[in-house]
C-alpha cells in the first residue's frame, strides 16, 4: 500500500503543479480612534461564523473541480482529470477613517499578525486541495461502467479529508486563542495601546 507521500512522489510533477490558488480579501469597515474603540467596533461588526459570536477575521474558500471520469475496458471507472480551481477568501477588519500615527502603527502591527494567523488557515485549505487532487487522480472503482460507484466512493473519501482540514483549523485556533495565546496577546496590545 502506497503512503500519501509515496503516491505524491510517484506522480508527474506537472500533474500536481498546474494550478495555483487565488486569494480574495474582503474588508469590513470598523470605526474608532483608539485601539480599544477599534476592537469594540470589531466586536460589533466582525463576521459571524456558524451563527455564533463575531470573530476578528475569517478564512473560507470557494472550490470547484474539472473532473473527467472514463470507463475502462474492464468496466472499471477511472478519474483521469481532477483539476481544482481554488479561491481563498480572507475577511479582515479595516478602519474606515484615518488614524493618528501612533494608533495606525499599533493597528498595522495588530492586523499584520491577524493576517499571518489567517494565512495558516489558508495553508491548511491548500494542503487539503492538494491531498484531494492526489487522491483523485487515477482513483478508480471496479465494475462501474456508468461511473456511479466511483462518485460515491470519492465523496466519502473527500469528506474524510475535509474533516481533517477542519480539525486542523480548530486545533490551531484553540492554541492561538487560549488564555495567554497569540491572539489574546494581540488583542491586549491593541486595546491597551494608544
Keywords, please?
alpha+beta; 194 residues; four-stranded mixed sheet
Would you give an account of this structure?
α4 runs antiparallel to α5 and α4 packs antiparallel against α6. Strands 1, 2, 3 and 4 form a four-stranded mixed sheet that branches. The N terminus is likely disordered. This protein has six helices and four strands.
Largest sheet, described in full?
4 strands, mixed
Shape: elongated
Question: Counting H and I runs of at least 4 residues, what is the number of helices?
Answer: 6
Rounded radius of gyration (Å): 22 Å
Q: Helicity, in percent?
A: 40-55%
Q: What is the total tally of β strands?
A: 4
Low-confidence stretches: 1-15
Strand content: 15-25%
Quick rundown:
The chain is an alpha+beta fold. Helix content is 50%, strand content 23%.
What is the element layout, followed by pairings?
Blueprint: H1 4-10, H2 13-16, E1 22-30, H3 35-45, E2 58-71, E3 77-95, H4 101-136, E4 140-141, H5 149-176, H6 182-192
Parallel strand pairs: 1-3
Antiparallel strand pairs: 2-3, 3-4
Helix pairs in contact: 3-6, 4-5, 4-6
